[in-house]
Amino acid sequence: MRRRDFTIGVLLATAVGAAQAQEPAKQHRIAVIAAGSVAGIHNPEVRPFRAFFEELRRLGDVEGQNLTVDGYSGGGHPEAYADLAREVVSRNPEVIVASTDPIARAVRAAASTTPIVWIGGDPIQAGFARSFAHPGGNITGATTYAGAEIWGKRLQILKEAVPTASKAAYLTMRISQAPEGQQLLEAGRRLQMSVIELPLDEASATAIERAFSEIVQRQSDAMIVNSIGILLPYRQLIVELAAKSRLPAIYPWRDYVEAGGLMAYASDDRELWRRIAEDVHEVLNGAKPGDIPIYQPTKFELVVNLKTADVLGLTLPATLLGRADEVIE
Questions:
Q1: How many Å apart are CA 230 and CA 79, to the nearest integer?
Q2: What is the pTM of this model?
Q3: Residues of the chain with pLDDT under 50
Q4: Of the candidates 257, 297, 301, which has an alpha carbon nearest to the alpha carbon of residue 274?
Q5: pLDDT tens digits, one per residue of 7-32
Q6: How high is the pLDDT of residue 24?
Q7: Which pLDDT score is estimated for 183?
Q8: CA nearest neighbour of 141 among 127, 120, 155, 126
Q9: What domains lie within the chain, and their CATH numbers?
Q10: Which of 223, 257, 286, 303 has the maximum number of C-beta atoms within 10 A of its C-beta?
Q11: Beta bridge pairs of residue 120
């Protein structure tokens, strides 16, 4: 090759390389729909969402650079989810992150092809997936469901914390179809505790206050709360009413304990949201949701709030505190 041709080739290669370097990164756009308030999505104090954005950044998806994130709130009103889902779908995000089964169900009804990364209950029972390993369809994500047996474990921990408890109220939602109620009844028989199921017709402050009035009337001496996501926005109210009623309670999420609840036995929500971030990244890079296995937690944490125990006049056994993964003092 002559020197002149070689020089021209080098200059062309340099020019092309510079042009490619100046090309902006491909822009992606996702939507996140929370069942309750969406205010916490960008709040660094909210552990799950912080883990979600940290993992996205680690993978190279940086909000404000190559990623736009639109947040939407279901407001805890399932009757409005269908309209909200249609609104979100109409804005054509590449991926919709759906928190809770009812949100995911509404989004799927609005768009059968838009990729959905979801967090919720049992995906098989909800009809979202054929199997955990090969979901099929347009939904993947992470399940909080670890088998109905975990509810017996929660009741056992509650009984260990309050050995004198003989009647536990179970605060749940009528729309929840999971079999945990039966598991609680069976566990209650083994532990010599009666379990009173109190299903709410709606997630609202009024309905929850009415349920607590019934809990007091029935003279329950302990309480367990369902893990359904639409109750989570009311965690502060639930915790305050439990304290007012002097009810030791065990919750399915550490958010309740951080709000002042007594105990939680739950999966690590940070790990769940990190897995969701990984799924979002894969879909943005061309993967099909139906080919991405659904993540199921295997590790659970016991979190105990000693401040609340003191307020309730409750002395927790040393054996229970010794098993706790975290004790808030």
A1: 12
A2: 0.80
A3: 1-16, 18-21
A4: 297
A5: 444 444 444 454 444 556 789 999 99
A6: 62
A7: 84
A8: 120
A9: 28-146+268-291 (3.40.50.2300), 149-267+300-328 (3.40.50.2300)
A10: 223
A11: 143
- With b for 16 or more beta-carbon neighbours within 10 A and e for fewer, the 311-325 pattern comes to ebeeebeeeeeeebe
For 135-193, write each residue's pLDDT tens digit.
999 999 999 887 778 899 999 999 999 999 999 999 998 876 567 788 888 999 999 99
Centroid of chain to Cα 265 = 14
Tokens of 60: 């190279």
What single-letter amino acid sits at 185?
L
